[in-house]
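In the current project phase, work has continued on tokenised descriptions of protein folds. One protein thus recorded appears below exactly as we store it.

——
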Amino acid sequence: MTTPSTLLSAATGGFVSVDVRPWHWLVLVSVITAMLLIDLLVVHREAHEVHIREAAVESAVWIGCGLAFAAVVGWWFGLAATGEYVSGYLIEKSLSIDNVFVWALIMGHFGVPQRHQHRVLFWGIFGALVMRAIFIFAGVAVIERFDWVLYLFGAFLLFTAGRLVFSSKDHVDPADSAFLRAVGRVVPSTPEMDGQRLFTRIDGRRLATPLFSVLVLVEATDVVFAVDSVPAVLAVSREQFIVFASNAFAILGLRALYFLLADMHHRFRFLQQGLATILGFVGLKMIVHSWFHVPTWLSLAVIAIVLTSAIGFSLKAESLEEQAALAGRGVTGAGSEQVETEK
């Protein structure tokens, strides 16, 4: 029987078409729900500061879960589907790193204590999953009906890549958010924190705490990043199950990644150029899809090489600067000692 997925695969030249059953979705949603509940009710039941070691362990666990589900995808749908899943996972994970630094800017601007940040990020992640699902199903539906939309997606990704390369300002100040000011006019708020609560009562009035404003901004940034990442992932797979699963497992580990990388933005100086290269590559892939289908393995290789190179060159440059600084202090110190000796 010819299905819309089969027609889409034939029309777009080489994307995998798999027979996704309702129970596949049930297993995926159940696993995601269980992981979220364990994270909220067991691992982070009590508010506490997340230190580097804990964040590193949690990040490794989340990444392990994402890669383990790649094996499940291969078991259910075959090696080609696994390649698309891993490609989508790497794209979403790499683009989400920039999202982490935006979150750090928001948290710093509002002065959110570290022990209260996890609860806000939990609901931010939950909202991101919901929005990704909406964007993915809507995006695939539009592509099935209007194939020319792929050219618009590709052009948009190229525009975004260019903006990343030539932008002189990394991120906007949260205080400049017109959306946040509009929310403040609609929702009565208080400048006082009340633990992890989003709302509190003062003199009988129910008021939003600053954490509510933080959550609103986090959700807003999730929408902005979804506009970039969903078209990018649709360049490597058109199967809704694979696209959503890869996005979901990449997003689930963002909280741990946030606590691991939030203060390290300056160390990843070439990350923005790396992300621009990835977006440019998938944008071109979308534009040329009618004439040439870029194999999944090649997409996976390009994404992995670019991301690894951007991080590697960034760390190398940071190391060279630190060595130069130490050498400079050593020369100065030696010069001072020589002056003292001459005296």
